Amino acid sequence: MEGQGIYRAECAACHGAKLEGQANWQTRRADGKLPAPPHDATGHTWHHPRQQLAAIVKFGMVPPNAPPGYASDMPAFAGKLSDAQIDNVLAWIESQWPQEISKQRAQMLKAP
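Given the sequence above, the corresponding structure tokens read:
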């Protein structure tokens, strides 16, 4: 699956080979940045719509997906990955979530 290969090559170094993220991902480091969050069921990735996640991957943590001046190590992959490749990575990540998380996400994203 293309998404898994791209994830391993481009994302796993920070977000973990098993989508586990970096330790203490909710606590800012001394440099003011947050560690890379997990993309498994323990993180918050599943709380966001695919369109927003794609924008974060493509453009990095910039407005409207982060406050102006937000300090992050998240790179922008525009110019390196196509929209289809980004979508394939996100589809692979989503395929790793437990069915219950996928159901909760679907309910949350359709709520008004």
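The first helix runs from residue 2 to 10. Try to locate this feature in the token string yourself.
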